[in-house]
Amino acid sequence: MSLRAFLASALLLSAVAFAFWGFPRSEPGFRPIGVHRSGALIYQRLADPPPGVGRLPAAVRFSARSATALLRGPDRALTPLGEWLEIMLRFLGPVLLGLAVLSVRGRVRR
Q1: Distance between CA atoms of 49 and 23, rounded to whole angstroms?
Q2: Which of 30, 31, 46, 58 has the highest CB neighbour count under 10 A?
Q3: Which helix (H) or strand (E) holds 109?
């Protein structure tokens, strides 16, 4: 398995893990939808996406950012498993990117 394939599979697997178990459930949000005749605002509860497929695009972006940024902290709250996943990605991402660059350099030099 090549280093690029290993990096891509690590990012994809970590994104799936973030989507299901890495992000905590958020507090329900509300938005105003109208005004009652007494003058009070009427609010509607926003649907929280369930853990899983609904959170997958955000999880892919978060795992890609974690793998490529060394000195930036997380921009959202994480569960304990999510924190460990991020630590692993912050270490594994630059190492695999560096090894991929060295392998391409070795092929070009030949």
Answers
A1: 11
A2: 58
A3: helix 80-109
